[in-house]
């Protein structure tokens, strides 16, 4: 299985686009070309890369101005700062006027690990999905990241895309067809539905394999688009499986779990929906895996939560 960081794929796709003579692509970074894996892009296309320094508000305003001048502006900046320090500019300069700026939040979630609370981005999805006109996308692996950036290069809508820092094993066997607002079914199952987004999709797949060994049939759903949100896939899971569990590298408030709960609460169902994420507390520091283990977001932790809650629905699943 290939294991490549999604940010590296971003650089490869943008470099390919920049080679076109008629391309109007421009990439902006906030002293983060290394973190964004854009070193090769900067070396080959220095005229297409704008370095603003650590000035997150300014970088979004500049990108909006470039977009209004006919450029296709991609902003690559750490998710923890891009989604917080510049949120007024995102709301007013980009989203309000439906301006074609692509905001790439790099090293999302707990990717920065040991740097701790200041560098965790665990509220970015909650914030960005509340802003009108802004699409919110979290690709699962390198193949879907490539498909997402193909879409971004063709779209004229503003979008926030979260990418992690670490290399991720493939979730797809081949490059998928990305459709904004559509979730993907990576595993079929009728006992439990595991709903995941971003790089937690790989963890969901690993958990489904562990559950299979225990005789549990798990459906794995990839919500690479948080906004617009695929409500129909959630409704189908409510009628076709017996337990829903959403997992995310994000606060339990305002992210994937909240989006799923909004659908569940308006559906005539008695099926339980569990939300696994970072609880309402300052998240610990450590490696990404240590943090996942601590909060039960590892494959083993997810399986344990599912096994503890499946008996509540009775013996009808057997």
What this model shows, in words?
- The protein has two domains: 3-169, Rossmann fold (3-Layer(aba) Sandwich), CATH 3.40.50.970; 184-310, Rossmann fold (3-Layer(aba) Sandwich), CATH 3.40.50.
- Residues 313-318 have low confidence and may be disordered.
- The two termini are 33 Å apart.
- The chain is globular.
- The chain has twelve helices and 14 strands.
- The protein is an alpha/beta fold and 318 residues long.
- Helix 2 links the parallel strand 2 (25-29) and strand 3.
- Helix content is 36%, strand content 20%.
List key phrases describing it.
318 residues; alpha/beta; Rossmann fold; 14 strands
Could you give a quick summary of the protein structure above?
InterPro entries: PDH/Transketolase (IPR051157), THDP-binding (IPR029061), Transketo_C/PFOR_II (IPR009014), Transketolase-like_Pyr-bd (IPR005475), Transketolase_C (IPR033248). The chain has helices at residues 6-18, 39-44, 56-68, 79-82, 87-95, 124-128, 142-154, 200-213, 231-240, 256-265, 288-294, 299-309, and strands spanning 3-5, 25-29, 49-51, 72-78, 101-106, 135-137, 159-162, 167-169, 184-187, 192-196, 218-222, 225-227, 244-251, 273-278. With 318 residues, it is an alpha/beta fold.
* Overall tally of structural domains: 2
Architecture per CATH nomenclature, i.e. the level-2 architecture of the largest domain: 3-Layer(aba) Sandwich
Average the pLDDT over all residues and give the rounded result. 94
Oligomer: single chain
Helix content: 25-40%
Q: What is the CATH class designation of the largest domain? A: Alpha Beta
Task: Write the element-wise H/E pattern from the N-terminal end onward.
Answer: EHEHEHEHHEHEHEEEEHEEHEHEHH
Rg, Å, rounded: 19 Å
Overall morphology: globular
Please tally the helical runs, counting DSSP H or I stretches of 4 or more residues: 12
**Which blocks of ≥5 consecutive residues have pLDDT under 50?**
313-318
What is the assigned CATH homologous superfamily of the largest domain?
Thiamin diphosphate (ThDP)-binding fold, Pyr/PP domains
Topology-level CATH name of the largest domain? Rossmann fold
Give the structural class: alpha/beta
Trace the largest sheet across and list its strands: 3-2-4-5-7-6-12
Largest sheet: 7 strands, mixed
Strand content: 15-25%
Q: What gap, in angstroms, lies between the N and C termini?
A: 33 Å
β-strand number: 14
